[in-house]
Amino acid sequence: MSVNRTAASAPPPVEVPRGLAGVVVADTEVGDVRGLEGFYHYRQYSAVELAQSRCFEDVWHLLVHGELPDARRGAAFAAGTAALRPLPDAVRAALPAIAAAGGRSGPLAGMRTGLSLLGAAQGFGPVYDLSADQRREDTLVAAAAVPTLLTALYRLGQGLEPV
Q: For residue 34, how many C-alpha atoms fall within 13 Å in the half-sphere facing its CB?
């Protein structure tokens, strides 16, 4: 039996302005930098004003749900994400080895490994196979665990126990 092979053909190159000025790579509703105007925003709210007037969880709610929460919804979101912060036992058990392997690179070097282990322990699937609700939930779990993971790796790197 004979198999014919064909050469893969690449699409022709696209001409773009030098520096990619004015080139749209992806559309987003989440944020943008309008440098000439001096405006950096999250969902059309000034990032500077948000940082000055809202708590971290309120801005996180804005990014995830598309709107700033009222006091009740903000408190519920903060409580819900706080409940997601503890690390699974399998991840926690691996942290000393991850911290030791990071050496002089510090805790951020171990973050990739820790997040990969978290995804495996939580059973995260490929993003493209998930419903919007499952993607949102997995994202919240991963993002909520980052402070716990980072501080644990830092403390272990300093010879201290994680809290």
A: 10
Give 61: exposed, middle or buried? Use CB within 10 Å, 0-12, 13-18, 19+.
buried
Contact between 58 and 118 (Cβ < 8 Å)? no
Give the mean pLDDT of 125-139: 93
**So where are the chain's domains?**
28-82, 89-157
pLDDT tens for 103-122 read 778 899 999 999 999 999 99
The structure's pTM equals 0.76
CB burial class (10 A; 0-12, 13-18, 19+) of residue 163?
exposed
Residue in 117, 116, 61, 71 with CA at minimum distance from that of residue 90 = 117
